[in-house]
Specification:
2 domains; five-stranded mixed β-sheet; alpha/beta; elongated; NADPH-dependent FMN reductase-like domain-containing protein; binds flavin mononucleotide; five-stranded parallel β-sheet; single chain; Nonspecific Lipid-transfer Protein, Chain A; 34% helix; Rossmann fold
């Protein structure tokens, strides 16, 4: 095993809440399982000044930068590492600015001389006894993987695949919600595969085809899924921008409100109605219809009051059609609501804003 020491560089300003952090920490679990010792660097927590371009680290004080900040401690860690893992979000087709600064400030690790290797000019490493290999983990808001092209080109130049220093990448598009706590339940399977990828890198310096394929199958977007994702993302942003809701005229039907003592699904919806928070969106008038395989329920929200009923309402604001088992797993946190929707496990008609805000509306 040639990889003994690895450094994981986390590059999101969302810190430990970020999607890239969740992936990086799972990759680290796999590396550790393979016997690799890990140092973690959270770039946005460090004081790292921009490179001044003075080349003092190449001339007057070889290997030492004029800026005395956190890079003073970080450079020896990088110098001693066999593997560096960048776990970073995609920002403007590239890496976030502070991560770029972190790369620039590694100049003292190189010598100024120009050498030619495999037909291309580069700078030799100051520490001749070490070879630093790299693995890249990145997430993006857009679903297509082509958005990562420029970022990956940069890392490949830096770590030169022909010298076998570039060990590969895991790229996940459409990943914005990976940073949200409420979504974590949907990623258990993916995180296990990421751990497996880390373990394989520790053993073979490559991720097996089987693990790569499984990650791709879980995270790739078909054209149809891209359309759904665009639609869902647009509605998601609208929930922050527009604070109002489709207001409907409420006509009370003759149905009797459900009570918790009714048991079964009736009790579930009566409980949900009792958790209605009238302060979430004051003055709200909406009808939320649920259709399971064999039975239907609706919640009628009329400003301060919310009641649940069995049956169907003619023009609901939002209709959720779901197998009962799927919906109950989402409620229990065993499935991600967003991912299940994208995977077509349930369908909706009407105002998706309502769906995306259910946890705000029913909180009491
Ligand atoms: C300043 C900024 C620039 C971004 N640029 C891109 C981009 O070029 N392409 C893209 O697909 N997503 C872009 N995004 C979205 C992020 O990549 C996305 O939200 C990602 O999931 C964040 O990951 P994190 O949770 O690890 O921070 C950008 C986000 C920000 C804040």
């Amino acid at each position: 095993m040639t990889i003994k020491n690895a450094v994981i560089v986390y590059g999101s300003p969302r810190l430990k809440k970020s999607g890239s952090f969740h992936l990086g920490e799972n990759f680290a679990i796999g590396l550790k399982k393979g016997g690799v010792s890990i140092e973690e660097i959270m770039v946005h927590k460090k004081n790292i000044k921009p490179c001044r371009g003075c080349f003092t680290c190449w001339t007057k004080t070889p290997g030492i930068c004029v800026s005395h900040d956190d890079m003073v401690e970080i450079l020896p860690i990088l110098d001693n590492a066999d593997l560096i893992v960048y776990a970073v979000p995609l920002y403007i087709y590239s890496i976030p600015g502070p991560v770029k600064t972190f790369l620039d400030r590694q100049l003292p690790l190189a010598e100024p001389y120009l050498v030619e290797k495999n037909g291309i000019t580069s700078h030799p490493r100051r520490n001749k006894g070490k070879i630093l290999k790299a693995f890249i983990i990145s997430v993006a808001g857009f679903p297509e993987l082509s958005h990562f092209d420029a970022m990956i080109a940069t890392f490949k130049h830096l770590f030169k695949p022909h010298e076998e220093r570039y060990l590969g990448e895991i790229l996940i598009g459409g990943a914005n919600q990976m940073s949200e706590n409420a979504s974590q339940s949907g990623y258990g399977e993916l995180y296990k595969l990421i751990q497996q990828a880390g373990f394989e890198i520790s053993q073979n310096e490559r991720v097996s085809q089987s693990t790569q394929t499984q990650i791709e199958e879980l995270t790739s977007f078909t054209p149809e899924k891209i359309k759904k994702y665009q639609n869902m993302a647009n509605q998601y942003w609208d929930t922050f921008i527009k604070k109002d809701y489709t207001q409907v005229e409420i006509t009370q039907l003759d149905d009797q409100p459900l009570k918790m003592s009714d048991g079964g699904n009736s009790a579930y919806f009566a409980t949900m109605a009792s958790q209605y928070n009238p302060n979430a969106f004051p003055g709200m008038k909406s009808i939320l219809q649920f259709e399971f395989e064999t039975d239907s329920y609706y919640l009628l929200i009329d400003k301060d009051i919310c009641n649940a009923f069995a049956g169907s309402y003619p023009n609901p604001t939002l209709k959720i059609k779901s197998p009962e088992e799927i919906w109950m797993k989402i409620v229990a946190g065993e499935l991600s609501g967003q991912k299940s929707f994208m995977d077509g496990l349930y369908t909706i008609e009407g105002d998706m804003n309502l769906l995306l805000n259910l946890n705000k509306i029913f909180t009491n």
